[in-house]
Structures are given as structure tokens and as C-alpha cells.
Amino acid sequence: MRNGGRIAAAIDVLKDVLTRHQPVKSAARDWGKRARYAGSKDRAWVSGLVLDALRKKNSIAHAMGDDSPRGLILGALAHAWGWNIRQIDDAMDEDHAPSKLTLEERERLVMAPDPVAPPHVQGDFPEWMAPMMARVFGEEAAVEAQAMAVRADVDLRVNTLKVDAEKAAQPLRSAKAEASPLLVNAFHIPARDPSEREASLESIPAYSKGWVEVQDAGSQIAAAAANAQPGEQVLDYCAGGGGKTLAMASQMQGKGQIFAYDIDGRRLSALIPRLKRSGAHNVQLVHPSEPTQLSDLTGQMDCVFVDAPCTGTGTWRRRPDAKWRLKERQLEKRMGEQDEILAAASQYVKPGGRLVYATCSFLIEEDEDRVANFLSSHADFSEEDAAEAAIASGLLTEDGAAMIRKFRAPTGSVRLTPRRAGTDGFFFAVLRKAG
Ligand SMILES: C[S@@+](CC[C@H](N)C(=O)[O-])C[C@H]1O[C@@H](n2cnc3c(N)ncnc32)[C@H](O)[C@@H]1O
Predict the structure, then answer these.
(1) Residues with a CB atom less than 6 Å from ligand 1
(2) Domains detected in the chain
(3) In which residues is S-adenosyl-L-methionine bound (predicted)?
């Protein structure tokens, strides 16, 4: 396909995302089924442009004076992809392109960004969230949010059950992976340009052999805060697809036991093939349909990890459509669930054991507020230094350790953000039960 046809396709896909509230993945898949002539490069190009338009939806709409799918896609070409008017004009002259640029579009496409636009416009976040953004980031709300309105890099965690970082490095070179600056057993791949064709990570044998897992560095650091030791008894209470379970299994080197529980049995099933691939043999799935399996663990665990369901604000770089779908009532619902889950999960911690609370949200309402609420009714728990817990795992580099110490709150919890850490937004806190 030529660029004109791709631009038209991106406008159609974005229309579906915005008017039918479809995630980008499914809207792009539907378009792909209709457009049999489109190849994989065309699909990556179209989805990439739609995602970039969504990442910067407010600032592009403001610059273009137009929040229609056409205005957003044309604006994304200029303001996210750096195309000049000539390139856009050329594309719009091609067959299957949308109609030619209007005079007003032409003027808007070359205008400089508005330096006095409000924070939700400069930072591309929903306006209703302005008070929460100001609460967590103060004057820096717009710049913190701007770092969430760009493409995310890819991080890989080395599965030390199978291989060490040195051995994994060589085959990962073809994927342009470099050693992580933050973690000793991790690699980092810069964000891909959707207009360039690149080999998929899944096609690298090191990946299919289970040597590495795709896992954001923030998620790896949160899992490190469990400081899971070989021989310990660990409950991953919201195990889901098992990202943290697998990271902790790697930390424990096959010794001790991890119980992986989730209220959603289907999500747990997705963990079975991942466990096989990873070679982790000390993970036992605790299915919600067998509640006695869970109750047997009461008061027995050295560590209970709660990777709580949350609004996912920390992952806006990867899922910009979710940023605009989020509503205040969902945040309130999540906060209620987080309180219930923390209280329920705490029963399994043994005296002297620890409860780790993590979210991939940067909102104080889902983070410090939930920890404070839990501690107010659980006098037998007290908060510890989560940064030192993560560092004690031995998984952080010197730079990684310095970084998380810098972003540790006086209470001991840590909040990472794309701007601070180059990771997804993550929060983690360690709560110790009296012995
Ligand atoms: C953030 S996700 C977990 C991601 C996972 N730990 C990982 O690293 O891949 C949160 C999980 O909590 C689960 N969940 C929601 N409510 C729960 C509850 N009341 N008890 C246990 N798990 C729950 C959801 O099904 C979801 O899988």
C-alpha cells in the first residue's frame, strides 16, 4: 500500500476506536480482515499511526482545532511523526488517499505548540484527572504525562532458571537488545518505529527457548521488592498471566514453593504454557474453584505478593486507548477492590512475614491511600523500606539502586514513572507482619 491509502485506513481505524470504543488492536484487526491487500508492514504502519494519534490526542486536537479522526491522524503525521507539509501533500495526492488538505488544515499543521495550553492538553491526559495528576506530580503534571505520551521501549528479563545474562546477550543482539541500565538480568530494546520493518522478538530462538520473558523493567523491579529467597513459601495472590510469578520463580532458583492464585481461573490457565516454557517447577496453581487449597495457606506464607487490579495508568504508553476510556467510577471501583484484596491477602502472611502491594498505576488514590487505609485497620503490619527490599534481591544495578532510592517516599514505598525511571508507571510497598 502507498502512504495515502494507509492514512485513509488509519482514519477509519481511529473512527472505530473513538466512536465504537474499540481497543486499537481489535479495530486494526477488523480493518485487516476487510483489507486483504494489506501486508504486515501496512498493518504495523496503520496501527502505529493510530496509537501515536491517541497518545497525543488532546495536544493534537488543540493544535488542529479539530478532534475528528481525520484531524487527529493528519496532526499525528506532523506533530508525532515530524512529517512536513510537502510529505503530507504528496501522500494526499495518491490513489485511495483521503481528500486533499484544506487551507485551515494546512495552516494548523505548521503551527508551533501552544505554550500556555492547560496541563491536560500539554500532557495529553483526560481533563477529569487534572486534580489527581496535580496531587501526585504537582507542577510537573504536564511533563510527567508527556513522558507517558510516547512509545514504550521493550524490556526483557533473563530467565536465570535456564541461562545467565552473558549467554543470553549474544543471540539477543539481532533484536538490538542492550544490557538494561537498571537491572542485572535484563535487556532493553528501544521503541520500534512503526514505519520501519523489524524482525519480531518472537522469531528469535532465545525467546522460544524460554531464555527471556518480555517484562517491563518497572514490573521486574516491583517483583524484586518481594526479595523472594530460595526455600521460601510465597503466595502470588493476583497472579493473572504470571509475569510476577515467573520473575519470583527465577529469583528462588527452583527452591521453595510459589502458590499462584487468581480469582479468574482462565487467566491462571494462561500461565500453564508460560510455566512450561520457563522451566519453573516449584509453582503450584491455586484455582479459585478449590477454595480449601487457598485456606490451607492461612498464616503460612513468608511473602504474599499482591499485584492488584488497577486502572493501569502506568501503562498509558502501551495502551493509549485505555487512557481515554478510563472513567472516574472505574477508579472508585478499583479502590474498593484493592482494599478488599489487601485485607483478604494479608491473612496468608505468617508472623514475621511480608505483604508486598504493587500496582501499575501512579495514582495516589490507588497507591499510598490504599496502603494507609490497610494499615489503619491492621495494627499488626508496619511499612518497611521497599527500595532496600528490592536492592537486597541483588537484581538491581548500581544505577538502578540509586534511582529507586531517589524515588522512595518517606514512608518507604516507591513510585516509578516513565519520566523518572524510563519504565512503566509502577508503585510498590512492603508491609511486615509483626513476629
Ligand atoms: C494486575 S493483574 C495481575 C498481573 C500479573 N500479576 C502479572 O504480573 O502478569 C491483576 C489480577 O488480579 C486479579 N484479581 C482481581 N480481583 C481479584 C481478587 N478479588 N482476588 C484475587 N485476584 C483478583 C485479576 O483477575 C487480574 O488477573
Answers:
(1) 237-244, 262-264, 267, 307, 309, 337, 341
(2) 3-111 (1.10.940), 217-433 (3.40.50.150)
(3) 262, 307
